Amino acid sequence: MVATQVDTGIPSLSSDPALELYRLMSKVHHSDRRVRKGLSSGEIAMSYWPVEGQEAMSAGAALALAHDDQLVTTYRGLGDVVAKGIDLPKYFAEILGRSTGLSKGKAGAMGIFDPDHGIAWTTGIVGAGPLIANGIALAETMKSTGRIVLVSFGDGATSIGYVHEAMNMAALWALPVVFFCQNNAWAECTPVAGYTRSTRLSDRAAGYQMPGVTVDGTDPHAVYQAVTEAVERARSGGGPSFVEAVAYRLQGHYFGDQMTYADPDELAAKRADPPFARYRQHLIDNGSATEAELDRVDAELIAEIDAAFAAARDAEPTAVDELNLDVFAGNGTELAAPVVQRASVPDGDTEDLGLVQAIHRTLDRAMAADESIVLLGEDIADPAGGMFKITAGLSTKYGADRVRDTPIAESSIIGAALGAALGGLRPVAELMFMDFLGVAMDQIANHAAKIRYMSGGRQGAPMIIRVMVGTAAGPQHSQAFEAWAMHTPGIKVVWPSTAADAVGLLNACLAEDDPCLFVESMKLFYGGGKGPVPTADYVIPLGQADIKRVGNDVTICTYGATVHAALDAADRLADEGVSVEVVDLRTLVPLDLTTVLESVRKTRRLVVTHESVGFCGPGAEIAAAAGTELFDVLERPIQRVAGSYTPVPRAATLEAACRPDAARVADAIRRIV
């Protein structure tokens, strides 16, 4: 790793850090007061989480960081981002929901993102930040930037498994991360003693073989020294540290919270001796500064804060026409644009590949061409090479840094992939079975899917999540949850039915600037998806359905392994004089509804089939759209053939009954032809 000279980016009052710390504490203190003043007077209305009492924590930590070191913080992050040097007018505008905000008012306080000042991400999900911080730190390490990542979180977050997963991964990979726990004595409204028996939360660091220290969070010097040591360790390649700073939150969990849960005498005593006023008096008493000098510092900062706040308050609200922008790159939507020129699989030499071999070949070629592509997942490196050998040999060829075995911790895998994407890499994360989406759904739905929107279109999350829909594996390893992802704005969903399609679609996903869920069917691993694949590389753009069979009497709309059941049904019905057109969607988001509607206009009949549960499934959306658009064209009711409203059973007889097959699809067609 390349070391970098520490540049705080903070104007120096003197060489004495005491005055630098005071300036930062004052800026945090008066920014917090200005927001609370606006709320108290009715000047503004917003959700807000005060930081009074925690000024020394943010000031000490920020001063220990270089200007371009990265910060990941939480919704109670005003102190952290202000001390880090955020653009104040844009910050205030963002938390007030104004058009001039950092993200055009789309994220608010829970999604502050200011890369120009090293603020890499903010999360409103307690404990989720450390997972993302790991990925950012991984990217910084692989790019040899010398930057470190400080992730700030509250004491309550240490009860959440995400934090422990993140600490384990950071220690395992010796990532340059500082875990900075701001213990303000309350997890929302519960005292520390009400949720843990740990006296020092930093003691937990020992379990991950990293240094842990607890310091007085009301003393900015103590915080600065502890974080400086942790930063130096991380920057020198020594790995992560855990710093716990202990103070007492002097305001409620949220603005308006009267803190009835606190002991009134204890709270009164703490408020009578606030850290900012105490430190101010300390500097005067020891001769570091005169009262007049500190008054001048305060006055300058108050003027700057008031001007920034007023500008934000008076800015225009975000226009309504911004609502549907920034969900996807290029302001795409859940529906694909009409295809002007449909991509085709190139002519020329081919080789017979199964789905496993096709995906392996595509990843291999992509990694050779682009060093930013990294793979993360359980057992994906050699000698295991992945449960289904899709990544076999790739770690031997490209190194363990780029093909990373991870702990069995799906949230950590997705969090690291997301952070790596924010850090400039193009990660491909394997979750093995699609069932495990549920384990990592917070990182997928609350973070990866929302990066572009919450950044106001400034940042995407170019990452792929590979999952496999199992078979003969029982209720917890055979589920298809594509509807979850389709219902989550910001994620693209792809499900190939052949090896040839898998190559082109995966290449498209590797070039996307949005997160993609790439679904693989276990049924197709064993022969069903095998076929000729061009030896030349190619791309099938997302949002282009494929007509796998041309027909005139009825349209079958489907995707994944069910395409083969549809083709089988079409063969059976051809003997009965029925001409069936099979439309393979290939991409579920963006959905090529235009091709489906064009086919149904011709055939005037529609059957929608998929192996996932029919109730509220993707077929319902397609049927509703077709029924609305083609009400006067359809000659018979739309038919849906899908999985039963049950878990996927292990017994072969029950699983066969649970999922649609060619016979059920053929029966549905007969009902309307």
Structure write-up:
It comes from Mycobacterium bourgelatii. Pfam families: E1_dh, Transket_pyr, Transketolase_C. Keywords: Acyltransferase, Oxidoreductase, Thiamine pyrophosphate, Transferase, Tricarboxylic acid cycle. This protein has 3 domains: 18-312, Rossmann fold; 350-534, Rossmann fold; 546-672, Rossmann fold, CATH 3.40.50.920. Helix 1 (17-41) packs across helix 3 (78-84), helix 1 packs across helix 10 (291-314) and helix 5 crosses helix 13 (410-422). The chain is elongated and about 100 Å long. With 673 residues, the chain is an alpha/beta fold. Residues 1-14 have low confidence and may be disordered. The strands form 5 sheets. The protein has a 7-stranded mixed sheet with strand order 11-10-12-13-15-14-20, sandwiched between helices.
What's this, in brief?
The chain is an alpha/beta fold. It is built from 23 helices and 22 strands. Strand 18 (554-558), helix 19 and strand 19 (580-584) form a beta-alpha-beta unit.
